[in-house]
């Protein structure tokens, strides 16, 4: 074992010690009281949270992936910078400001929250889709065309499988960020677990704070892990093996 | 089989990559496109399967103009090997090799059979490599798979862009030999890009020598070496063109050209057979402690002893 691996282990162990200590502290101080005492309200907030995340990130997925594919086709290549810069803007503007803008358009409520989070999720997906498709070995595409694959076949049999790893990473980043940012939806009346978090902040009440924040965190980590597993199914074995081999050298 | 008529290609931006080239390539002929980097070899090759469009002129494959053919269908009927092998990293070796048969809708059994045949042809046991991925193979093996993939649907025409480019000289020489063997049985019409004169001499029935997109000479290798059409050709083939050309001739060529003395049997010396290269013969004659050299004769007995003077006379005959 080299020193890098040792340090990685120490960090990992320290991380879990902190996590366990944290949970021990929260549980022993009865900080999940809100969840235990108001399970219906909790279910409602969680449901709303998931609803916002699901709708906004699905819409972002359905927009950014096709857009990324189109913007890497020879015909539309010249427009790439416009879209990437626009999406970039969406990312540089603080999420609070996007929420405020969305509220300006759609008023208070869940629609405004969904719009804001949709815009916020576009960039990571678009960027990674484009990066993934651009990183496909031009020789492979050329060989595919030369062997008589149609452009559609090249896209589905060569380009998307080879870009899958980068695309999934983008989608994962977008959704995990989205789960966290959805906590802000409360600010424009969108609901979700942010309701408890902000109540906790306003009332200096740890039971609200923890009952809201910990589920959001667990949700984010679970989704993150889910995507790791999904990667195993969606990224072709050859690519995964090649990446592993490349990382080892 | 492949007919280029006044073909020109100007890239957007104004580079004239191919300038008014006309060539006629016969059935089963192995033609090497040769020339320095940037002379237009790849461009000329890629115009045949329409990966590059012609600016002017006309290319016909088996009598039909490529414009009248469906691009996708024609490409499935032309084997294509690219400069950097271009294997698909997401597919197993078997899937890589069987890409075109799969598109053509071959049955599972037929594909399996073909895969095994091809792998044996290129000297890689099918069972060992079937489930491997491209990155698990050496550079030489990858290039062989590239060749097998191009041969998969048994296309009559093969376009090969420096398929043995990135290999070290020893492996390269071996793969060239193997490929020549394969070609002797398959008799494809081959357009093969190379920038290496020795490779071209070894493989080609005829060589197309290009410079700045213009045709310099289209001839058999020995003609190119012995009767260069212009200054550029003689410079390109190099000052050792005579030595190079000797590797193209065999003992039987010399016996046909010259009357050689008859030798009595049972002499101590080295005996060369009909098919041996004259280059080896010369090498023996120049050895610091040479043994007498004899040629085997069709009607029995030996001819010789052969001397450097005989080789000289032969070379004079061939370049006359
Ligand atoms: N897509 C392109 N756009 C513009 N110019 C090009 C393009 N492809 C090639 N060229 C130019 O056309 C000329 C011929 O290029 P080509 O690739 O056919 O050369 P080559 O003989 O295959 O060279 P090499 O031995 O280096 O592979 C070069 O001057 C090159 O710069
Ligand atoms: Mg080239």
Automatic annotation (TrEMBL), chain A:
Domain (ABC transmembrane type-1) ranges: 46-227
Keyword NADP: no
Segments passing through the bilayer: 6-27, 52-72, 92-120, 175-201, 207-227
Pfam family, one: BPD_transp_1
Principal location listed in the UniProt entry: membrane
One of the GO biological process terms: amino acid transport
SUPFAM superfamilies recorded: MetI-like
Domain of life, per lineage: Bacteria
Membrane topology according to the record: Multi-pass membrane protein
Keywords in alphabetical order: Amino-acid transport, Membrane, Transmembrane, Transmembrane helix, Transport
GO cellular component term, pick one: plasma membrane
Gene3D superfamilies listed in its UniProt record: MetI-like
InterPro entries, alphabetized: ABC_transp_perm/SBD, MetI-like, MetI-like_sf
UniProt keyword Acyltransferase present: no
Subcellular locations according to the entry: Cell membrane
Family that this chain belongs to: Belongs to the binding-protein-dependent transport system permease family. CysTW subfamily.
PANTHER family, per database record: GLYCINE BETAINE/L-PROLINE TRANSPORT SYSTEM PERMEASE PROTEIN PROW, OSMOPROTECTANT IMPORT PERMEASE PROTEIN OSMW
Name recorded for this polypeptide: Osmoprotectant transport system permease protein
From TrEMBL, chain B:
Gene Ontology molecular function, alphabetical: ABC-type quaternary ammonium compound transporting activity; ATP binding; ATP hydrolysis activity
UniProt key word Oxidoreductase: no
Protein EC: 7.6.2.9
SUPFAM superfamilies associated with the record: P-loop containing nucleoside triphosphate hydrolases (SSF52540)
Matches recorded under PANTHER family: OSMOPROTECTANT IMPORT ATP-BINDING PROTEIN OSMV (PTHR43117)
Subunit description: The complex is composed of two ATP-binding proteins (OpuCA), two transmembrane proteins (OpuCB and OpuCD) and a solute-binding protein (OpuCC).
Protein name as catalogued: Carnitine transport ATP-binding protein OpuCA
Lineage: Bacteria, Bacillati, Bacillota, Bacilli, Bacillales
């Amino acid at each position: 074992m080299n020193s890098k691996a040792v340090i990685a282990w120490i960090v990992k162990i320290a991380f879990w010690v902190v996590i366990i200590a944290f949970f021990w502290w929260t549980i022993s101080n009865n900080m999940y009281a809100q969840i235990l005492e108001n399970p219906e309200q909790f279910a409602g907030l969680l449901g709303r949270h998931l609803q916002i995340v699901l709708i906004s990130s699905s819409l972002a997925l359905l927009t950014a992936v096709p857009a990324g594919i189109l913007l890497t086709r020879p015909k539309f290549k010249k427009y790439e910078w416009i879209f990437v810069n626009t999406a970039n803007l969406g990312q540089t503007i603080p999420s609070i400001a996007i929420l405020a803008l969305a509220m300006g358009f759609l008023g208070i409520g869940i629609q405004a929250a969904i719009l804001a989070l949709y815009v916020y999720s576009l960039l990571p997906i678009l960027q990674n889709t484009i990066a993934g498709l651009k990183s496909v070995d031009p020789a492979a595409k050329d060989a595919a065309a030369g062997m008589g694959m149609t452009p559609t076949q090249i896209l589905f049999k060569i380009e998307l499988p080879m870009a899958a790893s980068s695309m999934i990473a983008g989608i994962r980043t977008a959704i995990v960020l989205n789960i966290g940012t959805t906590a802000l939806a409360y600010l424009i009346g969108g609901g979700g677990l942010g309701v408890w978090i902000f109540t906790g902040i306003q009332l200096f009440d740890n039971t609200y704070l923890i009952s809201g924040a910990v589920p959001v965190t667990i949700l984010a980590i679970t989704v993150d892990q889910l995507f790791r597993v999904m990667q195993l199914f969606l990224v072709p074995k050859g690519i995964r093996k090649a990446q592993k081999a490349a990382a080892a050298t | 089989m492949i007919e280029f008529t006044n073909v020109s290609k100007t890239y957007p931006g104004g580079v004239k990559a191919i300038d008014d080239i006309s060539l006629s390539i016969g059935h089963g002929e192995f033609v090497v496109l040769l020339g320095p980097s940037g002379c237009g070899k790849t461009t000329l090759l890629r115009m045949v399967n329409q990966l590059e469009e012609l600016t002017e002129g006309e290319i016909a494959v088996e009598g039909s103009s490529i414009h009248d053919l469906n691009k996708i269908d024609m490409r499935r009927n032309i084997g294509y090997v690219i400069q950097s092998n271009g294997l698909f990293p997401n597919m197993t070796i078997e899937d890589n090799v069987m890409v075109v048969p799969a598109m053509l809708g071959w049955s599972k059994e037929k594909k399996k059979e073909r895969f095994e045949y091809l792998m044996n042809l290129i000297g890689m046991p099918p069972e060992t490599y079937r489930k491997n991925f491209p990155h698990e193979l050496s550079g030489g093996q990858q290039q062989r798979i590239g060749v097998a993939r191009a041969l998969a649907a048994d296309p009559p025409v093969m376009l090969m862009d420096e398929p043995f480019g990135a290999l070290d000289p020893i492996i390269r020489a071996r793969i060239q030999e193997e490929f020549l063997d394969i070609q002797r049985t398959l008799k494809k019409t081959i357009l093969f890009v190379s920038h290496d004169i020795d490779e071209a001499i070894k493989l080609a029935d005829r060589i197309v020598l290009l410079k700045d997109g213009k045709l310099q000479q289209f001839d058999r290798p020995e003609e190119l070496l012995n009767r260069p059409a212009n200054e550029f050709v003689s410079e390109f083939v190099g000052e050792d063109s005579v030595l190079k050309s000797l590797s193209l001739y065999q003992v039987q060529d010399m016996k046909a050209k010259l009357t050689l003395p008859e030798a009595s049997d049972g002499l101590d010396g080295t005996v060369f057979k009909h098919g041996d290269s004259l280059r080896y013969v010369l090498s023996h004659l120049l050895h610091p402690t040479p043994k007498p050299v004899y040629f085997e004769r069709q009607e029995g007995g030996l001819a010789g002893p052969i001397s450097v003077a005989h080789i000289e006379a032969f070379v004079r005959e061939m370049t006359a």
